[in-house]
Amino acid sequence: MNNRINFINDHWFWPVIIASVILLAIFIWKEIILSGKRRIILKSLLSLLAIATLALIALKPASPATDTSGKIVMITPGYEKKQLDSLRKENTRLKVVDYSSRQLEFAELEKAEAVYVLGHGIPHYDLRHLEDIPVEYIPGNSPEGIIKLRYSEKIAAGEDLNIRGIYNRPRPGHRLVLQAPGGVGLDSVDIGNDPEQPFQLIAELKAPGNFVYFLTEKNDEGQILTSDPVPVQVEEKVNLRILVLNNFPTFETKYLKNFLAEAGHEVVVRSQITTGRLKYEYFNANRTVIGNLSREALEAYDLLIIDAASLQSLGSSYSGALLNAVGTDGLGVFIQPDEAFFRAPGNFNL
Known about the structure:
Layout: E1 6-7, H1 13-35, H2 40-59, E2 61-62, E3 71-75, H3 81-90, E4 95-98, H4 106-110, E5 114-119, E6 135-139, E7 145-150, E8 154-156, E9 160-168, E10 175-179, E11 185-190, E12 196-204, E13 209-218, E14 224-235, E15 241-246, H5 251-262, E16 266-274, E17 277-283, H6 295-298, E18 303-307, H7 308-312, H8 316-327, E19 332-336, H9 339-343
Parallel strand pairs: 3-4, 3-5, 5-6, 8-14, 15-16, 15-18, 18-19
Antiparallel strand pairs: 1-2, 7-9, 9-12, 10-11, 10-13, 13-14, 16-17
Helix pairs in contact: 1-2
């Protein structure tokens, strides 16, 4: 640290000093002539103070600011040397610190004019040290291995765990294996030769609970190179109670009811065959007769699937009951539209 006081007008230094000495001598001589030696010391000190003040005003002294660390480059694993060399060419006083050396003093960064972070960056728990510092991140080469991973951490039982990701700079002959908590392989994929290899692994989740699967990389000899945990929360599947109302049997409803039944939902289908004649079908549900669409009748269901013709034929009282079931009880409604449905002037608004 340089504590020396500098002068902005340092080229005037000697002329100002000489002029100040001459001016001080004149003041002292004048006081001796006018007042004799009476209080000459006090008056001389006052004259010295006044002349020194004028001299400092002319020279403009300046103390250098607290020695900051200037611009600092923090190198982290994966940084590129050419990026560091480029920064050094722009600023010869650039200071380089190595984050991985564990000898870094973060208090030093707080005094820095600017901080450049090269490489893969620092862990999230140390980011707080850079909150109020002007930081520029210059990423380096992407690390070898999995650089992107995406999957749902919460999945319903019976659904698939679908893991997608990108493997950077893969090695030929290596494989990625999705393993169950007991180590059993559920799915695997060969790692190709592309610089950034996308991959996908799928496994069916049957039982609810909290599980930790593993994404394991193996070489061509079957040796485990890496094994990363994949925590998954498998939730109990919620089966819906679904009521389907059709003015007449439709082709779409035939496949829809089969799909819902195979998924485990309780499905009751009421179709009108002819005037006054109804057909009921039950899937995973007890037999029951659906009369008028009162609010009490709709309370037993989570979802109503109704075609546009059936909806249009509802009277005002039943339409009101349906509106109450939607707004108060949270009933979901799916309307199977027809051409008239889209041309209707707001008659189907719920």
